[in-house]
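Exercise 7. Predict the joint structure of the components listed below.
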Amino acid sequence: MDNLLSYIPFSSSLSEEEGKEVLNNIKSLSFKKGEKVNPAGECSGFIIIHSGQLKVYSLSEDGREITLFRLFERDLCIFTASCLLKDIDFSVNILSEEDSECVLIPTFIVDKIRRKNIGVSSYICSVLSVHLSDLMWLIDQILNKRLDSRLAAYLCEEADLKGTYSLKITHEEAAHHLGSRREVITRTLSYLEKEGEVELRRGEIEIKNIERLSLRAKDSLR
Amino acid sequence: MDNLLSYIPFSSSLSEEEGKEVLNNIKSLSFKKGEKVNPAGECSGFIIIHSGQLKVYSLSEDGREITLFRLFERDLCIFTASCLLKDIDFSVNILSEEDSECVLIPTFIVDKIRRKNIGVSSYICSVLSVHLSDLMWLIDQILNKRLDSRLAAYLCEEADLKGTYSLKITHEEAAHHLGSRREVITRTLSYLEKEGEVELRRGEIEIKNIERLSLRAKDSLR
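Solution:
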């Protein structure tokens, strides 16, 4: 059980006593690919990812999704402890994008420790700061970038994450990810296919020219 | 000089020694309406607003603006100390929207105190958290809300801030604020005028029916 502590990104800031308290209250959590992680608004505690991948997304009234953050191994999910965070009171959705193994540090432990431990408080600050930066980037993406660049960036990111150029992504999923509509994604993908950058198959997008696609992602084609 | 401390939102967390250190290094700053507050990327320190109003905005490559945050009396501007914040390394622009009186706590003082003082660290966390929440709201606005609602919300907010229904706002300014284009704003304003909610004059927008405009801002008309 001791080595669970090593998964906690702020473990080096914990006193021996705090470490014990965390270990006595930590819980293991497993999520299947596609499983919802947290009922919206539930404030169970910090989730730390051992393995797998979580997606934090927002859902509009008309059912459109936009991915706000993606969390990977050793990342800390603060949105499952939103009651501890000032003004983070609206509901985000969290989904496990892969089979994920996580641990949960319950809210009351996090709250107790962050009030006394400056290392933990600073760590939470740094997570908030990185997220703030992510959202500023996202707003820039939404407002300024053409959809073909954003889609190219998404495909390159997926290829990198999955380690393959054959991506099992539906047009619907890409639309959700980019806060767009399926028809628009289909049109943009067809354009990328004509340009020889991808090949479209049923339920699959094959990257044919990663160099050009990466250039497009960087917004430097044309 | 002592009462300058009372303007600092986290002053109650400061030890006597820290309070003295802050007072010995604090600087008064005045900005004229329309003046740039900070060369982008400069990391001078935390700015706290006595009186007036600052706007933090992002600028796209093609020159469009979008307002990210508006800061008012007693608000702390963290973006002028971005070197202290993890990953907040890209440049935002800061403009004084009114004549503003502020104080600056230099970066080295902020950095020293936040590393030791959990009250200050928590306060910075709460500011980051509120900003994160603001941006999540903004993304929701951009993606989901119709421009007429967003424009109505902006006009209502301005009327509330200025205490008048005669708003000296150009279409250009409204477009900047909402990350839109002037032509689109002009079209939307004409629509609002036809609906009897505003009257358009040269360089001025007069609110004629605040109840309907507020309803529209809440997205509940039609």
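Discussion. Chain A touches chain B through 41 residues (CB under 8 Å).
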